[in-house]
Each structure stands twice: as C-alpha cells, then as structure tokens.
Amino acid sequence: MIVVFGAGGFLGTYLTDHLIAGGYEVLASDVSEVSEAYYRNRNLAFERVDITQKESFERLPQQGVDAVVHLACVQPANISEQKYDPLDYVRVNVMGTLNILEYCKRARVPKVIYTCSHRNTQGMWKEKAGRAIREDDGRSLPFTGDYAMFAISESAACDSVEHYARTYGLEGVMLRLPPVYGYGPHTEIFKDGKPIRTGFLIFIENAMEGRPIEIWGDPEVGRDIVYVKDVVSAIERALERSGIGGLYNISSGRLLSLREQAEAIVQVYSRPESRSQLRYRPDKPNLIETYYYDISKAERVLGWRPEYSFHEMLLDYQKEEQSGRFSFLVEKRRALLRQAVAG
C-alpha cells in the first residue's frame, strides 16, 4: 500500500489517479473536506488527516504500508497578505513532516518520498546564470520576500527526512521541483499578497481569442519548468527503485524562453484564421527569474527523463481540460482563493 499525503492537491490528484490506474493500492489522505468528498464520491480509499495533529495518524494503517509520498505543504501562492503567518509554514512544513516521519518510524514504513520546491536555491539563480544547478551545489535561501519562510521551512523538512534516513534506516527520497505546470492550478496565484491571473493563462486566453501576445523585456529570458505528468512518473520511478535516497532534481533540464512559450501557445491555441501575433516590448520590464537544473542524477539513479516537451505538454493540457477529469482542481483552487481573500 502507498499512502499519499496531500492527495487533494494538484500533484496529489494526478499522482493518485496515475497510481490507481497502474494497479497500485493507494490510500489518499488530505486535510480538506472538499478533497474528502472528491475521493469518497469515487469510492476511493481516503482518510482525512491533519498532519499537524499527531492523533490524526491513528486513523492510518499501522502496518503493511510499503511507502509514503509526502506532498502536503503551505505555499506562498496560496496565502493572502491578510492570512500570512510564518508559524503556518513551521506547523505544516516542519512539524507536519516530523509527524509523518514519526508515523513511518512507528508503522515501519520503509520509504518516504518528499517533494520540495527549488526555492532554496534562489540565491544561486543570478550567480549561476548559464549553468545548470546541481544537487551538490547546496542551498542559497532567500531571507526576504514572499518565499523566505517557505524556503526556510522546506529546507528544515528536507533535513528532517535526511536525519530520519540516517538515524532510523528509512529510505528518504527528496525530489526537488521547479514550477510544475498542468491543468488545474494555473488560474490565479497570490503575488505580494494579492490574487493575480497567471501569465500562462493570459497567453492562452489571448491566443484563443486571436489577440496579440505581448512579450515584455528580453524574449530569450526563460526558466526551467516541468509537466505534472513527468513529476508523477518520477515519483513512480522512486517508488519502484530500492536502496536509493537523497536529493534529486526533477525538471526539464533546460530553459524555456518566453518566446518559445508564446510561440507554442499560439501554435496550439490560436485558430488558423485568426492566429495571434507576437508583439515584442523591450521597453517594458519582465520579472522572470532565470534558472535551470541538472537532471543527470535522476537519469542515472532513477532511470527517469521527462517525456513531455512544452508543446506536447500544451496538447495534453488541452486534452485534460476538455475531458473535465480534473475540473475538481480548478473549483478547489477558486474556493481556496475566495477563502483567502475573505480572510
């Protein structure tokens, strides 16, 4: 059995769907009532667990669990300025992780897979521009800005996984992720405490309507992104491999420029009779932060490589949007943002 914490989130929903389709026995777990309703309505195994509360873990199997996948966290993109509390990051991302690790220890779970953000390398992005960031480059955390406490708390969580791996023989695998794209969460995010529509969504909407797409600043500036289904396949590889541990970069391994992104979106979403034109605006600054990651360790140890190019990702994104399979994620996202704005 695989227990997935954070199963009601973006990545968790895709992962549990994939694992169940592949014949795995999965127990989904999340703190949200909306997520519980989603799984119960589909007659899928679910336990509502608040990872910050030790007693919640009594609802879970105490034996026979082969691995835990830990996806639960608090992120700045989900928090309004009014609701910001640095203690939330510590309660969920640090104490919650420790409670999961204690559960693994007590229930003799041999493996935990923890997904973490790449934000703890933020100080390297300018320093190492033009070079892929490796796992052994270490960390360079932001100590100011929206992502400061998030990066601090996730770094503590990673260190906790490593501590339990070395002390108790737990197989601890940490998968470090850049922005993960996919149908579901790319509607609105919080930026500087306020909800904003994502540039990705704006590009798509303009392409569908045949409106021009403006590219601000240098069109060749870019960043590393990864498709949600490629992350899912990396998690599955980590579940299958035995005797592994440590940190792995899971990304595309390359920069996707603004120009490439816009061109692909036009190709997929614009109608031939009203194809959007790209308008370059070097006079307007963009705020794109540039980074990309070396994925050779994941290739070597996990036997994993991303399958989707950005163009292929868009085609699959479009297919998933039309299917409605994951419309739950869009509605949950909107409800979360409404709740955050209301305080």
Your description of this structure?
The protein has 343 residues and is an alpha/beta fold. It has a single domain, classed as NAD(P)-binding Rossmann-like Domain (Rossmann fold). It has helices at 10-21, 33-41, 86-106, 124-127, 148-168, 199-209, 228-240, 258-269, 296-302, 310-323, 327-342; strands at residues 2-5, 26-30, 46-48, 67-70, 111-117, 171-177, 180-181, 188-191, 194-197, 213-216, 222-223, 226-227, 246-249, 256-257, 278-281. The strands form five sheets. Strands 3-2-1-4-5-6-13 form a seven-stranded parallel sheet, with helices on both faces. Helix 3 runs parallel beside helix 5 (148-168). The relative contact order is 0.14.
Quick synopsis:
With 343 residues, the chain is α/β, with parallel strands linked by helices. The chain has eleven helices and 15 strands.
How do the strands of the widest beta sheet line up side by side? 3-2-1-4-5-6-13
**What fraction, in percent, of the residue positions are helical?**
40-55%
- CATH architecture label: 3-Layer(aba) Sandwich
- Main sheet? 7 strands, parallel
**Secondary-structure element series:** EHEHEEHEHHEEEEHEEEHEEHEHHH
Number of strands: 15
- Discrete helix count: 11
| SS strand fraction | 15-25%
Overall 3D geometry? Answer: globular
Determine and state the CATH class.
Alpha Beta
Mean pLDDT equals 91
- Please identify the structural class as seen in this structure: alpha/beta
Cα-atom radius of gyration = 20 Å
Secondary-structure blueprint:
Layout: E1 2-5, H1 10-21, E2 26-30, H2 33-41, E3 46-48, E4 67-70, H3 86-106, E5 111-117, H4 124-127, H5 148-168, E6 171-177, E7 180-181, E8 188-191, E9 194-197, H6 199-209, E10 213-216, E11 222-223, E12 226-227, H7 228-240, E13 246-249, E14 256-257, H8 258-269, E15 278-281, H9 296-302, H10 310-323, H11 327-342
Parallel strand pairs: 1-2, 1-4, 2-3, 4-5, 5-6, 6-13, 7-12, 10-15
Antiparallel strand pairs: 8-9, 11-14
